[in-house]
Specification:
This protein has 291 residues and is of the alpha/beta class. The protein has 10 helices and 9 strands.
Length: 291
């Protein structure tokens, strides 16, 4: 192993060891630490506060200033809590998480896979989306997640370790098409977080999301069509603090039979519904409309 790689591995092990030790703390203490983080991020540093306020105000032009501020404040509160829950997930027993994460209509996935089709499960950065790492514990089939590797190798290694605890398999975004088209085994589930702003050179569609022209990465739909996959949307809502419901909503049974853009348009409509239901739950710090 080269010296640089050895240092990266050492850094990763150090980060994981510290995170694991923190995860052993009782949840009330972790939530208390999250409250401190919220205070610092919202009142002291103002982390991307202007971006969040602008995004929320443009997305809900009918809301008054006080309503906008309330959504923004609750977003920061929830966002800090999500980190506490993610850290706890490093060591929390599966039985505990099983009570906290409720999946609805998983039978839909079973039906498609029984019919010999891959399932493209697209979602947005709604609620604590990292809870999807628990999905392999709930179904009998392979679950892959498409992800964009982080620039920091130690942090990337840590996130891969965290997300794969229950058997989730991560595939880099640049390799997903080759992976799906070359996979000869049993059909599987592929998770796509499809609401990020596409790179400049990526092929994309243009739709309206929350009253704003929005570019959307076209790869999810094209992959579904070329792989003759079924497509569903994962609707995430918060039932109570630390508890979530993830509902499987059908988009199409056979992607190749749909018109180009229809799958992405349906995804955008379902994403908008998800955001409107819990406007504080979406990742507003992301510069979604920077183009």
């Amino acid at each position: 192993m080269k010296p640089k790689q050895a240092l990266q591995v050492m850094a990763y092990k150090g980060i994981y060891s510290i995170a694991y030790a923190v995860s052993l703390l009782p949840m009330p203490i972790l939530y208390t630490l999250a409250s401190v983080a919220f205070f610092v991020a919202y009142y002291v540093v103002g982390y991307r506060k202007e971006v969040v306020i602008q995004n929320v105000a443009r997305s809900f032009p009918d809301k008054r200033y006080g309503e906008i501020r309330a959504i923004v404040k609750k977003f920061y509160t929830c966002f800090a809590s999500y980190f506490a829950e993610i850290i706890k997930g490093i060591s929390a027993p599966a039985a505990v998480l099983d009570r906290k994460i409720i999946f609805e209509n998983l039978e839909l996935i079973e039906e498609h896979i029984h019919d010999g089709r891959n399932v493209i499960a697209c979602l947005g950065h709604c609620g604590n989306w990292e809870m999807l790492n628990f999905m392999p514990f709930k179904i009998r089939h392979d679950v892959y997640a498409v992800y964009r590797p982080l620039k920091s190798v130690p942090i990337d290694m840590f996130m891969v370790k965290l997300r794969s605890r229950f058997g989730l398999r991560l595939v880099p975004d640049h390799a997903i098409i080759r992976h799906v088209l070359s996979e000869r085994g049993e059909p599987a589930v592929y998770l796509f977080l499809a609401d990020q702003c596409p790179r400049t050179k990526e092929e994309k569609y243009k739709f309206t999301l929350l009253h704003q022209d929005t570019y959307v990465f076209s790869g999810m739909e094209k992959l579904a069509r070329s792989g003759q996959s079924a497509v569903i949307y994962l609707h995430i809502t918060q039932l109570s603090k630390g508890s979530y419901k993830i509902a499987c909503i059908p988009i199409c049974a056979q992607a190749q039979t749909t018109k180009e853009g229809d799958i992405t348009k349906k995804y955008m409509d379902l994403l908008a519904d998800n955001i409107r239901e819990e406007p504080y739950g979406w990742l507003w710090t992301h510069k979604r409309w920077k183009s």
